[in-house]
Each structure stands twice: as C-alpha cells, then as structure tokens.
Amino acid sequence: MSASHKEALAAGREQGRAVRLYLEAIDANKPKRGRQRTPETIKKRLDDIEARIQSADALTRLQLVQERINLQHELSTKSETVDLSAIEADFVKVAGDYGRRKGISYAAWREAGVDAAVLKQAGIGRGV
Question: What string of DSSP letters covers 68-93?
C-alpha cells in the first residue's frame, strides 16, 4: 500500500469520525417531545423514592432501585453541556468532501438533522 493511499484512508477515517460525532451530538441534543423534567423535579422524585424504598416490598423496592438509577443517570446527563461549536466546526471542514465522496445529497443531510445554515457553511447546497 502506497503512502498516498494510506494518507487517503486516514483522511477518510478522520472525515467519517467528524461527521459521526456531529450527527450523534445533534441527535443527543435535539428537543424531546412532551413535558421535560427539570433537575429540580428529578431531585424531588429521587427524594420520594428514598422515602418509599425502605418500607417497600421486595419487588417494588427492586423497581424503585432501578428508577433511582435511571433518574441519577438522567440528572447527570442534564448537567453535562456539550460544546457543539467545536464539533460543528470540524463537521463544516469535512462535510463537503465527505458528502461528495459518499454521494450524500442535501436532502439526506437535512433529514439526518443537519441545519441548513451549517450545510451552507460546509459548502453543501441544494443542488448537491
């Protein structure tokens, strides 16, 4: 395998990584349907679980323990903030080349959740 071929493969992997990270980030941060829980309501529910868990029967205690684990995870992820700007900047650098190489249309990018303004920054137009 030639050095240029190895470089091309490495560049393709880097482009794919940047695109994947951006798509995963916008999926993780898109608004969910329905009423959203706030950290305060989660903490209130955790307090309620702690009060009920000691007097609960074995099966109910098991379900309460699992709910507590789920709520603690949700609370920790709510406090994490993702800096989309760096991920988006990496995406903008590579998305045009990646999309042309893979034959990805503007419509496919949009359906995947990529904002039109981000596609414009990446040089991806409706005709692409």
Answer: HHHHHHHHHHHH----HHHHHHHHHH
The tokens for 63 are 């379900």
For residues 105 and 31, give the distance between their C-alpha atoms in angstroms, rounded to a whole number: 25
Residues 6+ apart with CB under 8 A from 124: 95, 96, 99, 106, 109
pLDDT digits (tens, 9 = 90+) for 94-119: 999 999 999 999 999 999 999 999 99
In what helix (H) or strand (E) does residue 108 lie, and over which residues does it extend?
Answer: helix 106-111
Helix axes 58-79, 39-53, angle to 10 degrees: 160
> How do residues 20-41 score in pLDDT, each as one tens digit?
999 998 887 777 777 888 899 9
